[in-house]
Design brief:
By secondary structure, the chain is α/β, with parallel strands linked by helices. It has helices spanning 2-27, 63-66, 77-89, 109-116, 131-136, 140-156, 180-200, 229-247; strands spanning 45-47, 55-61, 93-97, 124-128, 160-165, 204-207.
Length: 259
Amino acid sequence: MKRRSRKLRRLAGATRRIAAGLIARALVSNGFRPHHHTTFPLADGVYGNHGSRGISLLVLGDSIAASLGTSAAEETLGAQCAAVLSRATGRTVHLRVLARPGATTGIMKHQVRQALRHSRPPGIALIVVGSNDIVAGVPLSLAARALAHHVTRLRRAGWHVLVGTCWDVGRVPAVRHWLRTPLSRRSRRLERLQTTAARRAGAVAVPLRDPRHGTRPELFAVDRIHPSAHGHALHLQALAGALTDTAALPGDVGPAPPA
């Protein structure tokens, strides 16, 4: 029975991925093929050399968190966050990116399991997820509950958690014009649900939606879907204050208070 159950779960997962890929291709007008857009620069490593007790920084989530669309490690969201955090705190930052393109909030549970097995002491976990929930038709309340569950697990393990909430998918240049308004509405609703869920679970919610996404083409990579290095720098502007404030919390890290 267990073997059959695992096979059924794998089949359901594969079906969801195929369906999400087909939906993504239908939403955009640039010939995007999800399985052809999965590589991203590896930014894992040590940032800063301050000879002090280091800070662990994990990045979890989807293709935005993984920085699909960038061409060099220093352009990635994770590397930019680690560099800013190191300069602001005068401490070495140990970065590991667990995010994977195509991840929905539910699928992110595999990343959370990896995070809980991380070899370094808990530090800051940054989650950026939601775009794939929008395009794949995931019920938004279900996505928000999954996010709260992930945050709770990380907090109980001693991680401080930041959540970059869903950006406005309707402003992505490659999205077909007639879909822009419904996708924007859906994105804003998920942003509100994520904010409430993250805060209740003990995370800091940071909005990544920005009107400049709709007016500045240079914020997007050549695929006109994913953020460019400039786009990630814009996200960093939103995240930087929360990152440094979190690093300055007394005792650095610690488990969440009991519910």
